[in-house]
Amino acid sequence: MAHIDDKETQRSNLSYIRTAMDEPMLERGHELDLARRWQDDGDEKALHELVQSYTRLVIAMATKFRNYGLPVGDLIQEGNVGLMQAAARFDPARELRFSTYATWWIRAAIQDYVLRNWSIVRTGTTAAQKSLFFNLRRLRAQIEGKQEHEGLGDKGRKKIAETLKVKVSEVESMEQRLFTGDQSLNTPMGEDGNDEWQSLLPDNRPNPEEIVVGMKDKQTRSQWLQDALGGLDDRERKIISERHLTYEVVTLETLGKQLGVSKERVRQLEARAMEKMRSSLSVHESDLKDF
């Protein structure tokens, strides 16, 4: 749903827009001179003239995003932030027009604002998701305009996914987000209003029975491991503990120095100990199938 400003806000926005559009355009040489004065001398008057002259870029960009239901005044202000960032980073030595450079920063600032405020739920985090958010309407309109029936369809979603290099599931999710809007989970379902939408949310946590069984299984496996370790001599138990039961694995060479044997001998003792443990645990092979 689009935001509608009150009359006073509309008059203020219109006055600001008119003032911005009346600012004179800058010649290339004068533009670069202003940028150099700001960069080299910190001349704030030059910065003000440079920024003020290109506020019209902000107005033009903000109007392109007015259909997202956000206040136009806020879009303009966010665009102004992008314009100031462009002025702070602009390098006149590259001989690039400031308008070309600033357009990118203005668009980025407005897009970031739209993504943060269009919905109470975070909309997109990756570059691909952002591209999907801002291009889905346009691509959907193009596809639907070529079809006789209404709706995007699986073929259309696949085409959009290929164009924007995203998954079809992401297209479906974003389509639902864009064309349905936010709803409270406490909204009643149906006319009787006895149930709420949150009643349909699945609970993926394990149930009490699964928790108890899992704890029992863990205790059982732990006991099996202790029994298997109990069948090893002290040297074998130390090797297994240091090599397999610690976060920081001790090297064969280090263990060899501690035990007074070569690292090859440590490897042989480790292999023998592992075989003993496999033999001990194989007794429970039939029970393992139940886990």
Describe this structure as you would to a colleague.
By secondary structure, this protein is mainly α. The protein has three domains: 111 residues, Four Helix Bundle (Hemerythrin (Met), subunit A), CATH 1.20.120; 54 residues; 81 residues, Winged helix-like DNA-binding domain superfamily/Winged helix DNA-binding domain (Arc Repressor Mutant, subunit A, Orthogonal Bundle). It contains 14 helices and two strands, in the order αααααααααββααααα. It has a two-stranded antiparallel ribbon. A hairpin with a 5-residue loop joins strand 1 and strand 2. The longest helix has 23 residues. The relative contact order is 0.05. The model has no long low-confidence stretch (mean pLDDT 81).
Structural class: mainly alpha
Distance between the termini: 52 Å
The percent range for strand residues is under 5%
SSE order: HHHHHHHHHEEHHHHH
Give the total of beta strands: 2
Neighbour order of strands in the largest sheet = 1-2
